[in-house]
Design brief:
By secondary structure, the chain is mainly alpha-helical. The protein contains 26 helices and five strands. The strands form two sheets. It has a three-stranded mixed β-sheet, with helices on both faces. The protein has a two-stranded antiparallel ribbon with strand order 1-2.
Length: 587
């Protein structure tokens, strides 16, 4: 307890007979699926559809169980050779049914009046939206053979390059003050109260990338080239158009959000320049000071036990079911807490709806930021609780709404703390919230600009590490403006963000801005409506797996395609910036 997560609910290790049994059963299910697909018939459409869907459901549950187990093992201990062997075997097994999956999707797409076919069948009716999406995406499918080849080649292409990135960043040795440490550990020092330590950690981090940057550059180039090719073959205008369709999100929504964000940037730049002056810098804020804590209060280092009690107490005032789930997560070892060699950096939550649980990885350092990170990931777990009773093929939400509950959780924790604080302590907490929003609004926009430019240039040329550094620096200058000192930016941000290294998931940057702003808009509604808001909130989260982003928002009375909603959300943070500047101008 309070150390590493437990995976015993999956298997007792790679030598567990249950693991071999499940792998064998999955092979049987794949054969059954292939047979069912071969026997599909429009003469008895409902029976064919029902039979094949039921097999796909069982296959999906088992695949997610096995895949989650192997991925979680590797995330916590990257040199996991035994798990890697099984993971490769699983990938090959799943790739073997790609052609059959494509045929089944095309069969669904060929059903002219699918509503009448599924009417009256409880299982099939639950998949109404699922079937609609398949029919809408039919025009972007390749031939059966091409889909099969593409999936198989991805195992040694995009996915393999992503695995290389994860391995390199988890195992690179960082030389910091005469000692050896990990990348995740040294990046965690960006929040240190010691200015000399923050700068030294920044310099050590940048220096370590020289060992791995060329290899990572090859990984990034290969993944982005593959995605460019896929988008073209599938008939999309570009990878962004493909991502938006996969996200079930309109381009108008993204444009409305970005428009409002750009309007707000001068206020964020003002905040950064003001923070720089407070810390004694004349030319804007150096990168290594972005996360520098302000004020003198709440310098406490929390233990995990204290974080447990803190989160349960503060979530209980919002929703008792959330507090109960958080308590369960700590007590039943859902969480892997501390950084160590071989463990990936950052934090994530893996929803496990087939087990009615989640697993959370974090690199806990004891700061208040570590507590808000835990709150964030536990928000993902709460989201998972709302969708766990859906049918097995209805348990995946898209990127934009993925950050809703997580950011909402952060607001609960930070706003509770701000309400109780005074003086220097209040300044610390307000600035922490502004700091976080600067990351998910301004920094995220720079990362979007970087990825968009890499996709554009990768069509015609290979981008070596030096060129990637220049693109990243230019993106940071455009987004951060005169808020940062141009002599101290972060040219290697593309080397430490795993979001760039998934061939099946591009542009995993704007969803953070979406989640941060969407959650702020929802939180404002909660403050207006009180407990009456909670049923809407749970219904909204539940709908994220079975509807479009825009329709999900309508449950709370929100139109995402209009900039006004985004402006109102941004105003909640720009008002805090004004308050922070007023409160600290006399320091």
């Amino acid at each position: 307890m309070y150390n590493e997560w437990s995976l015993e609910a999956f298997y007792h290790g790679t030598n567990d007979p249950a693991l071999e049994k499940d792998m064998a059963h999955l092979a049987e299910l794949i054969d059954k699926f292939k047979t069912a697909v071969a026997e599909l018939s429009l003469e008895d459409t409902r029976a064919s559809l029902r039979k094949t869907i039921e097999i796909e459901e069982e296959m999906s549950v088992l695949t997610r169980k096995l895949g989650s187990y192997f991925n979680l093992r590797r995330s916590a201990h990257s040199p996991d050779t035994e798990g890697a062997k099984y993971s490769t075997k699983l990938q090959n097994m799943m790739a073997s049914k790609t052609k059959d999956t494509v045929i089944f999707r095309k069969f669904i797409g060929s059903i002219e009046d699918i509503d009448s076919v599924i009417r009256g069948d409880e299982i099939l009716e639950a998949y109404k939206f699922h079937f609609e999406q398949i029919k809408n995406n039919a025009s972007h499918k390749l031939s059966d053979e091409a889909e099969d080849v593409f999936t198989r080649m991805n195992l040694s292409g995009g996915r393999a390059w992503g695995d290389l990135f994860a391995y390199l960043t988890a195992n690179v040795i960082v030389d910091y003050k005469g000692k050896k440490t990990s990348l995740s550990a040294v990046r965690g020092l960006a929040e240190s109260d010691n200015a000399e330590e923050r700068k030294a950690a920044y310099e050590a981090e940048l220096a370590c990338y020289d060992k791995i940057r060329d290899s990572i550059a090859f990984a990034l180039n290969s993944i982005k080239a593959q995605v460019n090719t896929e988008a073209e073959l599938r008939g999309y205008e570009n990878p962004l158009a493909m991502t938006l369709e996969q996200s079930r999100m309109k381009k108008e929504t993204l444009e409305a959000m970005f428009s409002a964000m750009r309007e707000s940037f001068p206020k964020f730049h003002e905040y950064l320049r003001h923070k720089a002056l407070l810390l004694g810098y004349e030319n804007g804020l150096p990168w290594y000071e972005i996360l520098a804590p302000m004020g003198k209060a709440d310098a406490k280092i929390y233990t995990v036990e204290e974080a447990h009690a803190y989160l349960v107490e503060h979530f209980a005032s919002f929703a008792p079911d959330l507090a109960e789930m958080v308590d369960t997560a700590f007590r039943e070892e859902w969480i892997d807490f501390y950084p160590r060699k071989g463990k990936v950096g950052g934090a994530f939550c893996s929803n496990l709806p087939f087990m009615k649980q989640s697993r959370i990885l974090t690199n806990f350092s004891g700061t208040f930021g570590s507590i808000t990170t835990l709150a964030h990931e536990l928000g993902h777990a709460y989201h998972g609780k709302q969708i766990e009773n859906h049918r097995p093929l209805n348990t995946s939400y898209t990127m934009p709404v993925a950050e809703t509950a997580s950011n909402f959780n952060e607001l609960i924790i930070v706003n509770h703390a701000i309400e109780k604080a005074e003086g220097e302590e209040k300044i610390r907490l307000i600035e922490t919230q502004i700091q976080d929003m600067t990351q998910i609004i301004v920094d995220i926009y720079s990362r979007f600009l970087f990825e968009d430019e890499v996709f554009r240039r990768r069509k015609d040329t290979f981008l070596f590490a030096d060129e990637l550094e220049k693109i990243m620096v230019e993106a940071q200058k455009e987004a951060f403006g005169n808020g940062l000192d141009p002599a101290y930016l972060h040219p290697y941000m593309w080397c430490c963000k795993s979001h760039y290294y998934r061939a099946g998931l591009s542009y995993y940057n704007f969803p953070y801005a979406f989640g941060g702003l969407f959650s702020r808009g929802l939180y404002a509604k909660y403050l207006e409506e009180g407990e009456a808001f909670l049923p809407k909130y749970r219904a909204l989260l539940k709908a994220t797996t079975i509807d479009t982003v825009e329709n999900v928002a309508k449950i709370a009375g929100i139109d995402l395609t209009e900039p006004d909603f985004w402006r109102k959300s941004l105003a909640t943070i720009t008002d805090q910036i004004d308050l922070f500047i007023r409160e600290t101008s006399t320091l």
